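User: Predict the structure for this protein chain, please.
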Amino acid sequence: MVNKGNETPNSGKDGRRAIGRRTFLGVAGTGAVGATLAGCLGGEDDGAITIGHLAPLENTQGLGSDRSAQLAVEQINDDGGIRDETVELVSADTRADPSTAQDEASRLLNQENVDVLIGTFSSEVSLGITDMIAENGVPYIVTGSASPQIIENSVGSDYDAYKNIFRSGPINSFFQAEAMGGYADYLSDLHGWNTFAYLADDAAWTDPFTNNLPGELEDRGYEVVYEDELSTEIDDFTPVMNTLDEEDPDAVFRFFAHIIGAEMLGEWHQRELDFGVEGIHVASMTPDFYELSEGAATYETTSQSGAAGTTDITEKTLDFVDEYRAFVEDDEDAPDLPMYMGFNTYDAIYAYREAVEEAGTTDYEGDLDAIVDAMLGLEFTGTAGIVSFYGEGETYPHDVQEERDGEGVITNFPITQWLPEGGLECVYPEQHRTADHTAPHWME
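Assistant: Here is the predicted structure, written as structure tokens:
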């Protein structure tokens, strides 16, 4: 039983007729608005385990997370539930707005009486609801927000007060900045790219990139020729592109979650600007972004949990993608892939199940410590990697741990690239690579 609503797309174009922010959100982000009860499980059985899911249900990340949560709940119920109890899912639309998220989180806690909260995409939303959730004591697993402050300002500042808060993915953006340094090494070895520019959303999640990535690159022997944080309301990229053209980097590391960078990509192609476009672009994770951008996405890269299902990160990754696609086959609103948040949400639900089975209880009011201890004991193989949490006293307590190879390089930060024919390949890290990174044809 799913309540669905559609937004009317608006038009927008640049020199390549690439889509703008409103068009992208309207076309690619069409979807469910309001609460969703997965599988119409009823909500009347007081013995059921209720999972509350928070996400912006008007965009593809939120929709992919919601459908991934529905799939996990359906599979778990088919496998006997959690501690022999039926599982219910209640999804609430945060609209990526802190005030709305406060209201919806309160409703899930006080009216739906959820046993666990999972989700949230925007770091500002996550930061805005942690105090209320901590006071309630319900386990809360973040699955879409990357800001280290979510952990630093909660579990990291007052462990006992916030010990119910965890993040199962993605790795926080402090570690993402380090991982991007490793990716720069790969680009340097492959293409001889040694000068870089830096662009980012002016938003909480990018602060660690702004504070750390330029220094990370310089410590590795690279030159950073330009740095800027852009308003999330930017609607004209020409001045930025002109500056980049003048500064002449080999590649631009841009980190956009709130900014839809399709117009930037269109101008990049039209002018054949002599740099690569790398880093993170959340809009570009959408399965039909290549089509929606009319090919302007070609050659750009973005990191995303699960590597968009292009490679077998674990033995569960590709099976999950197949199961997800079958699950949403007749769902016109759902994205064709789980999205990065979907991988993390699916893993979080299964990790929670394993933890409370091990703890022998879902009663967070009576025995939160047992649930917390079980969560900290997890070494759970998920679809996006290993879910294992840092413990009390560490820099990021209850944050998902980064994975490293034998040389200390962070590996649970896969990067995908759009190909000229429209497909995706995983280009980094080496053990998950399905193709080498391709430089724009005009740079060859």
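The domain at 173-311+408-443 is CATH 3.40.50.2300 (Rossmann fold).
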